[in-house]
Amino acid sequence: QDIRECIVEFNSLQIIMSGASALSRSEVFAEKTYSYEDVCVGWRYIAVCYEEDPSTQRLQRCKKLKKNQISYGDDAATRVDLSLIHDIVPQRGNDFEPVDD
Fold first, then answer.
1. Are 77 and 62 within 8 A, CB to CB?
2. Is this model's pTM higher than 0.90 or not?
3. CB of 70 within 8 A of CB of 51?
4. d(C-alpha 77, C-alpha 71), whole Å
5. pLDDT by residue (tens digit) across 13-47?
6. Model confidence pLDDT, tens digit, residues 61-82
7. 73: phi then psi, degrees, rounded to nearest 5
8. d(CA 93, CA 101)
9. Which of 12, 39, 79, 80 is most open to solvent, judged by the fewest CB atoms within 10 Å of its CB?
10. Angle of CA points 68, 90, 36, to nearest 5°
11. CA of 41: how far to CAs of 47, 88, 94, in Å?
12. Element spanning 19, H or E
C-alpha cells in the first residue's frame, strides 16, 4: 500500500518499444498505453522466452537471455510465447495488492 500511495495518479502512460525483426531484419515497433488502473503493485510480467533443449525438445523458461547463460549450447533454440505477453504473477514476498480478473 505504501507504493500505491507514492504513485501520482495519471491519465495515461504510453510505452513504445522498438527492435529488429529476426525474420526480415527490418525495424519493428510496439506501443501500449496504460491507465492508472492498469498499474498492479507487487506484480511482475511473466517471462515469455524459452530455450528448447534440442536433445529432448523440452522447453525451459529463460530467466535472462545472455549468450553465456544459454545452457544447451549452440544448438539451443530460443522461443517466444506471445500469448503470455500481458500475463502477470505476484512478485516474491507475497506483498501484492489484489487484482480483478
1. no
2. no
3. yes
4. 11
5. 999 989 887 778 899 898 989 999 888 899 988 88
6. 554 444 444 444 555 667 777 7
7. 80, -165
8. 21
9. 12
10. 110
11. 18, 11, 11
12. strand 13-20
